[in-house]
Amino acid sequence: MATVADTRPPSGGALIALRQASVTRGGRRILDTVDFSIGRGEIVTLIGPNGAGKSTLVKVALGLEPVDSGMFWRAPGLTVGYQPQKYSLDPALPLTVRRLVTLNTAASEARIAETLALLRLERLLESDVHTLSGGELQRAMLARAFLREPNLLVLDEPSQNLDVSGAIEIYQIIAEARKTTGCSVLVVSHDLNVVMAATDRVYCLNTHLCCSGAPEDVSRHRAFLELFGAAAAKTLAIYPHHHDHEHAPDGSIKPGHHHDHSHHHHD
User: Fold this and answer.
1) 219-232: per-residue pLDDT in tens?
2) pLDDT tens digits for 86-103?
3) Percent of the chain that is helix, strand, coil (3-state, to 5)
4) With contact defined as beta carbons under 8 Å apart, do 46 and 205 qualify?
5) H/E segment holding residue 216
6) Is the distance from CB of 194 to CB of 213 less than 8 angstroms?
């Protein structure tokens, strides 16, 4: 059965933790006593219907919104790479991929080359961003976030406007980035088909925390089925998700535990 986040004080393994956190704006409760945490090296996915409070929870996690009650904690010196859901590029402004990904960063040429290779953009370095496909533009925005060398990547709908193969590619890249850099990742997504197999832990939010846990547990949970319908759980595709580590209850990686397994979803 899915479980809510551990309510003990955060240990050294957590990058961000909320305990019984509530946010009220204009007399309306947006977040209601939410427990939430992101451990080091963990991919966490936040799902929920429109108006569920996902954007507010992300703003709290980024330190942009205060909580009205409860506790919010983030690791000192935390560096965040943020890819917003919406971004506007002036079509009249010439902008190369190189210029886009290196804005506001002091990354070395070697680091830029390494990141663009990871994101399969090296051949497009001098291309105008306005000529990119949807998937290429998403990868360029990811590159921009990666070049901050973050401890935590926050990605809001990273697979929007992409077909299934494009979405799978984005999540493969996210997993590779976690593997090579050790960063944690918070994904906000409606893309249940892919995301449920591409994450360590899922939080299902609808103002309050409906359920949380491993993807296969959440996809069978009554609260998840009520929000997304039984059809959503039945159509969840099977994509391998390989672990090479285990997480302790606080989200930190257990030393000396290395194994591979895949998450499979059955009708």
Assistant:
1) 778 887 777 776 56
2) 667 777 888 888 888 887
3) 30, 25, 45
4) yes
5) helix 215-218
6) no
Residue 10 pLDDT > 70, yes or no? no
Instruction: Look over the chain and give the mean of its residue pLDDT values, rounded to a whole number.
Output: 78
Q: Shortest CA distance to 50 belongs to which of 170, 168, 189, 182?
A: 189
H, E, C per residue of 103-119: CCCCCCHHHHHHHHHHC
Closest CA to 187 of 164, 163, 215: 215
Q: How far is CA 57 from the centre of its chain?
A: 12
Domains of the chain and any CATH numbers: 1-79+150-267 (3.40.50.300), 90-149 (no CATH)
Q: How far is Cα 186 from Cα 106, in angstroms, rounded to an integer?
A: 24
